[in-house]
Amino acid sequence: MVVFALCTWQVVTRGPVLAADERLGHRIRNSTFPEGLAEFLADAGGMLVGPGLLAALIVGQWWAARRRGGPPYWWALPLTTGIAMALVPPLVSLAKALTGRPGPPVTGGSGFFPSGHTATACVAFGACVLLLRGAAASLRVWWWLVGVCTVFNAAVGYGLVRRGYHWPLDVVASWALGVFLLWGAVTAARALLRRRDGAEAS
Q1: How far is CA 190 from the centre of its chain?
Q2: Is the preceding omega at residue 89 within 30 degrees of 0, hence cis?
Q3: Residue 47 pLDDT more than 70?
């Protein structure tokens, strides 16, 4: 949240970082990275892809627990990650309304900070990796999934800037917000599990 707060402060006060941010944004938009691929990556951050995959994974885990039975409180992490995903649209919309940052010249208008697509992809795909922790064959496989998720989210952010939909700082702030929401989901799930363990011990 410190990173998100610093980014927001720079946007609201038109701080010195914004000039460098916009110069970097112009360089990325004028790069030779294929526009078609950039558009595909930008679309991958939409509400249909990541959240749909997360919803399917949660339903799949619910179905498996119903058929074969699962450990007590198996629903803790699916519940908290689902709540984290549901919080993305209202939090992003609130920040956009409060900051009113103008978008890149290609897009125009205002209300581009932070990036909703970036936050959606970060939380949705990050939550999927968290939910797959128990299904991973080994810790090495799970860390491989973490790496793939990180690279993919970086590519989504790059695609959004390349297509002129956002400035780089919009993307960075959304990564910070997404990581905070995922941390909150894991922390809340652990609190539920500790409560279970305490109840069983008593």
Answers
A1: 20
A2: no
A3: yes
State the DSSP string of 93-115. Answer: HHHHHHH--B--TTT-SB--SS-
Domain count of the chain?
A: 1
The pair of structure tokens assigned to 68 is 């074969």
User: Is the pLDDT score of 70 beyond 70?
Assistant: no
Q: Which two tokens stand for residue 92?
A: 């992003």
Reported as a pLDDT band with limits 50, 70 and 90, residue 67 is: confident
d(CA 155, CA 194): 37
Structure tokens at 87: 């919080």
CATH of the domain at 64: 1.20.144
For helices 35-43 and 139-162, give the axis angle rounded to 10 degrees.
Answer: 120
The mean per-residue pLDDT over the stretch 6-14 comes to: 94
With a CB cutoff of 8 Å and minimum separation 6, the contacts of 10 are 16, 17, 18, 21, 169
Q: What are the beta bridge partners of residue 102? A: 110
